[in-house]
Design a protein that fits this description.
2,3-Dihydroxybiphenyl 1,2-Dioxygenase, domain 1; 34% strand; 4-stranded mixed beta sheet; alpha/beta; single chain
C-alpha cells in the first residue's frame, strides 16, 4: 500500500447545512453532488460530505451506534497573517471556535474551529512546512 490518503469523508447530519458552511461560508466548490453526498477536489485528494446514516450503511454499521472517531483536519496557510482571517471567516459561516489562534509550542501559529457537525479543523501556519503554489506541504 502506498503511503497516501486519497479521500477523507465526513458523516454529516444535515447535508444542506454542511454544504452551506463549506460552499457559502468557506468558498469551496463542489466537484460532484447528489442527495446523499458532496465531493470537493482539494489539491491532490478528495474531501467528501456524506449523510451520516448513509455512510454508516456504506460500511455496514448500525447508524444508532455509529460513532465518531477523535480526529482533526488541518488546513495550513502560507503566512501567519492568514490564520486569524480564516478563523473569523469560519466563525461567521457558523463554525464554533474551539481554540482561538495563538503562538504554538512548535514554533508556528494555529487555532481550531468545529464545523456544523463538530468536526475539528486546525488552521495553522508552520514556518518549517512551506505551502507550495499547488497547496501541497512537505514534512521537513
Amino acid at each position: 500500500m502506498e503511503q497516501r490518503i486519497s479521500i477523507v469523508t465526513l458523516g454529516v447530519k444535515d447535508l444542506a447545512a454542511s454544504k452551506r458552511f463549506y460552499v457559502e461560508g468557506l468558498g469551496w466548490k463542489p466537484a460532484f453532488e447528489n442527495p446523499e453526498i458532496i465531493f470537493f477536489q482539494v489539491g491532490g485528494m478528495v474531501f467528501g460530505l456524506f449523510l451520516r446514516n448513509e455512510l454508516a450503511k456504506d460500511f455496514e454499521a448500525d447508524p444508532s451506534t455509529f460513532g465518531r472517531a477523535a480526529i482533526s483536519l488541518g488546513y495550513n496557510v502560507r503566512a501567519k497573517a492568514e490564520v486569524n482571517p480564516l478563523m473569523k471567516r469560519a466563525a461567521e459561516a457558523g463554525a464554533t471556535i474551539l481554540k482561538p489562534a495563538r503562538e504554538a509550542s512548535w514554533g508556528g501559529y494555529s487555532g481550531y474551529f468545529a464545523d456544523p457537525d463538530g468536526f475539528a479543523w486546525e488552521v495553522a501556519w508552520n514556518p518549517a512546512w512551506p505551502v507550495a503554489p499547488d497547496g501541497t506541504i512537505e514534512f521537513r
